């Protein structure tokens, strides 16, 4: 980066908020070091930084807590990390309307703490809430086990403020929960991975905190039987807020050793309702061949979201597969068998009620055997596609990402996304190459 550009950045945000050299080590991704990291203190400073970067043809990498920094492909050339941690204010909280407007750099844990004081919460539970920012969560559409009942960021976002690639400030949606006519602009930025604009402020829907919440586990001798229990729960009158399936490897980080598989079900609401649902779950589980469910300590909730990844000491690759909920246990069995056939260990979890699986692959002594590992990952993708689903390689060394590909072929949808990208970012400044089809 030219010295003149660095000097202008320091003039915009202040010298202490521009990092270079060895200070950039926390922002190295896939072995690639950015040219600088800059931390604006307000929306106007974000606009000025993005405008300067676009004029200087320097890529901009929006950065919240860095929890999804390795997702997708890295930018093909070094760029500028645009850190949003200083944009962390709660702008407006309307408890009566069950809405909150918040700057993008506030962490999920800090936001939830503020909301809990008023008896409310944002019904999103992505991994690593202490680091993950609300802007980054929306940009990556991150979620956790409670998505079974409460959905994802797409279902909760009602307003967004974005800085576009030319430094313009664009607002979409509103600050109240209502139906409106016209294009739903906020949804465009959910899951866009920072390729269409830098999210600086959001308005989301809230819910009252439940009186009681329990996470219940039911061990099974066979994964297939646990899959049958999933279908039984979904066909019942129960209203779980989470419905997850774990294999033996993924259960170890949750403190369960010896069970080949388990169904983990969450319930919330008034205490009497929760108690009734747990009793009804016992009947359904035992009819499917499972052991009597028991309540887990509340600290297992955050571990559940990362159980597959935590099963190994530094999982070498993590793939997310999406299929129909009825196919989850079959996919887990086939994926595990495929890894074993190549001498590799795997761990599997699934948000079984919505058909989203996570497969983690331990490279062990095969870390340098890119071919064998790539074959397994391609096989996993093939399994998902055989079930009319798709797969995304969320975490892997760059060599594996190159060999396997992060995304499935996007087809006609990819061409539409390319056109949207060109309209909003014609200079290809924002996170270039990171998204589907190297957008």
How does this model look, in words?
- The protein has 439 residues and is α+β, with helices and mostly antiparallel strands.
- The protein has helices spanning 3-13, 43-55, 108-116, 134-140, 147-150, 153-156, 185-189, 223-234, 248-251, 271-287, 300-304, 307-310, 328-341, 370-386, 398-404, 411-424, and strands at residues 18-19, 36-38, 60-63, 80-83, 90-94, 99-103, 120-121, 157-163, 169-173, 198-205, 207-208, 212-220, 242-247, 261-269, 294-296, 317-322, 345-351, 356-362, 390-395.
- The chain folds into 4 domains: 3-83, 2-Layer Sandwich (Uridine Diphospho-n-acetylenolpyruvylglucosamine Reductase, domain 2); 90-208, Uridine Diphospho-n-acetylenolpyruvylglucosamine Reductase, domain 3; 212-297, Alpha-Beta Plaits; 307-404, Alpha-Beta Plaits (2-Layer Sandwich).
- The strands form 4 sheets. The chain has an 8-stranded antiparallel sheet. A 5-stranded antiparallel sheet has the order 5-6-10-8-9. The protein has a 4-stranded mixed sheet with strand order 1-2-4-3.
- The longest helix has 17 residues, at 271-287.
- 46% of the residues are buried.
Our measurement of the CA-to-CA distance between the termini, rounded to an integer number of angstroms, reads 23 Å
Low-confidence stretches: none
The count of helical stretches stands at 16
The total domain count is: 4
Largest sheet: 8 strands, antiparallel
- Structural Rg: 22 Å
Fraction of helical residues: 25-40%
Mean pLDDT: 93
The secondary-structure class comes to alpha+beta
What sort of overall outline do the alpha carbons produce when their principal axes are compared? globular
The CATH class of the largest domain turns out to be Alpha Beta
């Amino acid at each position: 980066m030219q010295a003149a550009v660095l000097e202008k950045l320091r003039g915009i945000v202040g010298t202490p908020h521009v990092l270079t050299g060895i200070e950039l080590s926390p922002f190295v991704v896939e072995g690639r070091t950015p040219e600088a990291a800059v931390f604006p203190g307000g929306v106007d400073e974000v606009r000025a930084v993005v405008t300067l970067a676009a004029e200087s043809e320097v890529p901009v990498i929006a950065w919240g807590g860095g929890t999804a920094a390795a997702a997708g492909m890295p930018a093909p050339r070094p760029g500028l990390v645009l850190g949003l941690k200083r944009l962390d204010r709660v702008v407006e909280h309307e408890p009566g309307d069950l809405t909150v407007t918040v700057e993008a750099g506030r962490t999920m844990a800090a936001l939830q703490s503020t909301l809990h004081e008023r008896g409310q919460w944002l019904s999103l539970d992505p991994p690593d809430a202490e680091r993950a920012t609300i802007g980054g969560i929306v940009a990556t559409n991150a979620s956790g086990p409670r998505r079974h009942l409460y959905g994802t960021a797409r279902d909760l976002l009602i307003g967004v403020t974005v800085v576009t690639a030319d430094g313009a400030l664009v607002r979409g949606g509103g600050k109240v929960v209502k139906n409106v006519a016209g294009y739903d602009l906020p949804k465009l930025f959910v899951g866009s991975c920072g390729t269409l604009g830098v999210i600086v402020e959001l308005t989301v829907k809230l819910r009252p905190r439940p009186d009681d919440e329990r996470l219940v586990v039911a061990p099974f001798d066979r994964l297939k039987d646990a899959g049958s229990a999933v279908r039984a729960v979904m066909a019942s009158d129960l209203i779980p807020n989470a419905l997850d399936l774990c294999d033996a490897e993924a259960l170890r980080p949750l403190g369960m050793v010896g069970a080949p598989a388990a169904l983990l079900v969450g319930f919330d609401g008034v205490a009497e309702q929760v108690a009734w649902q747990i009793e009804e779950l016992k009947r359904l589980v035992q009819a499917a061949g499972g052991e009597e469910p028991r309540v887990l300590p509340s600290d297992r909730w955050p571990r559940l979201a990362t159980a597959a990844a935590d099963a190994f000491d530094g999982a070498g690759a993590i793939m997310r597969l999406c299929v129909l909920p009825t196919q989850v246990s079959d996919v887990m069995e086939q994926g595990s068998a495929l890894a074993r056939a190549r001498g590799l260990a795997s761990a599997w979890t699934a948000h079984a009620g919505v058909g989203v699986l996570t497969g983690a692959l331990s490279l062990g002594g095969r870390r340098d055997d890119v071919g064998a590992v790539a074959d397994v990952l391609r096989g996993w993708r093939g399994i998902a596609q055989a079930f009319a689903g798709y797969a995304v390689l969320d975490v892997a060394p760059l060599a594996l990402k190159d060999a396997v590909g992060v995304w499935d072929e996007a087809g006609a949808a990819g061409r539409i996304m390319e056109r949207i990208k060109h309209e909003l970012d014609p200079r290809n400044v924002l996170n270039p190459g990171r998204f589907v089809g190297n957008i």
